[in-house]
Each structure stands twice: as C-alpha cells, then as structure tokens.
Specification:
With about 200 residues, this protein is mainly α. It has a domain of about 120 residues. It is about 55% helix and about 10% strand. A 3-stranded antiparallel beta sheet has the order 2-1-3, with helices on one face.
Length: about 200
C-alpha cells in the first residue's frame, strides 16, 4: 500500500506541474480582448472596442479545449505507466488535474496583460486600443482537466486493462455426470424385446 501511495503522490505532483505548460499555452493561444480608453468628465473610462466581439468567450473556450487535451494526455500517460490502476492512482489523477488547472489559470493571468485597466488606458492614451487582462470567466472550465482525465482513464482501463481470471465453467471441471434427478442414457436390454 505504501508503494501505491508513493506513486500516487508522484503522479499528483507531475500532473499538477504540467499545469504550468497549460498556463503558458493559454496565455499564448487565447484571443486578445480589445479595450479602449476615453476621458469622460475628467475621469478615465474603459470600454470594449468591439461590443459584439466574441474574444472573451474565446478566452474561456481556449482554456477549456486545452484542459480537455491535457486531461486526455495525462490519463493516457498514467495508464501506460500503470495499467493496474487502483484507487490512489485515480485520486492522484483527479487531484493533480485540478491543481494543474488552478496553476494554469493563475499563471496565465500573471503572464497576461496588466490587471489595472485604467492605468493601462492612461499609459496607452486616449482612443488607443489595448488588450484586456486575461481572465477566466467560466470557472467551471477548471474541472475540464480532472473530469476528462478520470473519464479517459476509466475507459482505457475498461477496454485495455488487465482482466480478472474468469471462474471455471461446468465444462472445464471434467466430464458431465448426471445429478440425482437427471437420467443418464438408458442401457440396452441384452435379451431383446419381450415376446408379444
């Protein structure tokens, strides 16, 4: 049991650290949400450059799609390393995926544009377009990685995992012997049929 717990701890840390790669990819691939600033009544106002743009949804979608891919790959890697599976392994995969998603989210926000949009608008200038801070609007996307990892690992284990030995059937135990209520073959009468 100690070996399984040790392996589960290693898998948790490895999967969680992969979240750094997810965070960098999210920051790099997510669409930029264009903002612009203006001065109204001597104070700065920031608004969307394109109010009907879909970039904000694209930011969440990019994170979700990347997390789904990371979940499938991490489940495949863990399955290939440990085909036997086990409860500690599955828990490690789920916890590691959740920690990896949290790390990716915070790292992507940290790498992205500045969080203070008013200061950013002032430094860019009136009417100049700049990128909004990277943020994850749909927090449910944080569950995409762990849930995908668990479902894919379950499917791989069901399809390709080791099988339990099947119990022996009645035909593998030896020749058929009739039970007390079953009649065996009727023996032939050596004297022939009775006279009529």
């Amino acid at each position: 049991m100690k070996t399984e717990v040790r392996e589960a701890a290693v898998i948790t840390v490895a999967v969680a650290l992969a979240g750094a790669l997810l965070g960098v990819l999210w920051w790099w691939l997510a669409p930029h949400v264009p903002l612009t600033g203006d001065v109204v009544d001597k104070s700065w106002v920031v608004y969307l450059k394109d109010s009907e743009g879909e970039q904000a949804v694209g930011v969440d979608g990019t994170f979700t799609l990347l997390a789904l891919a990371f979940g499938a790959v991490s489940a495949l890697a863990v399955f290939l390393l440990r085909r036997r599976g086990g409860v500690p392994l599955v828990v490690a995969l789920g916890v590691g995926g959740l920690l990896g998603s949290l790390l990716a989210w915070r790292l992507g926000v940290w790498l992205g544009p500045a969080q203070d949009v008013i200061a950013h608008a002032k430094s860019a200038g009136k009417g100049v377009t700049f990128s909004a801070p990277l943020k994850l609007g749909a927090k449910g996307a944080l569950l995409a990685w762990p849930l995908t990892a668990l479902v894919v690992h379950l499917g791989l284990t069901a399809l390709f995992g080791p099988r339990d030995p099947e119990p022996h059937g009645p035909y593998e135990q030896g020749p058929f012997e009739p039970g007390p209520f079953e009649q065996g073959p009727v023996p032939k009468d050596p004297q022939g049929p009775p006279p009529a």
